[in-house]
Amino acid sequence: MPDQQTHPEFVYRLATAAEWAAAVEAGAVPTRDIDERDGYFHLSTRTQALETARLYFADTENLLALEIPLDEIAADTKFELAPKRGETFPHLYGTLAAAQVSRVIRLVRTADGFAFGEAL
Question: How far apart are CA 69 and CA 9, in angstroms?
Fold first, then answer.
């Protein structure tokens, strides 16, 4: 189990509303090409999620942040350096079940990116 002083209580998977609907139907969050290529699910901490959204999902409509308790996936998650960003990010080496998502939060557009909105 991760040390709560060094790792957050929750991590986040950014997803479109369509990806989340597919996850609910299939019971598992779908991977993307980048996940397949790198061999893990790309996740973010809460403080990283908005910058990730701004950098990689600027043109995405109906963007959501899937909140996952780190304890749920800790055994298969490693915090590893992402050289392009110069930060360590949570990487999930395994599957992500829809049931492991504790809350779905709408991301709303702002003048300079995104902000956390209401939980669905």
Answer: 6
114 part of a folded domain: yes
CB 34 within 8 A of CB 89: no
Of 14, 2, 24, 1, whose CA–CA distance to 67 is shortest? 14
Note whether residue 1 is domain-resident: no
Contact between 13 and 29 under an 8 Å Cβ cutoff? The reply is yes
Contact 92, 49 (CB under 8 A): no
73-84 as b/e, with b when 16 or more CB fall inside 10 Å?
beeebebeeeee
Provide the domain limits for residue 29: 10-119
Which CATH number goes with the domain that contains 87? Answer: 3.20.170.20
pLDDT digits (tens, 9 = 90+) for 21-65: 999 999 999 999 999 999 999 999 999 999 999 999 999 999 999
Interstrand relation of 87-92 and 41-42 (parallel, antiparallel or unpaired): antiparallel
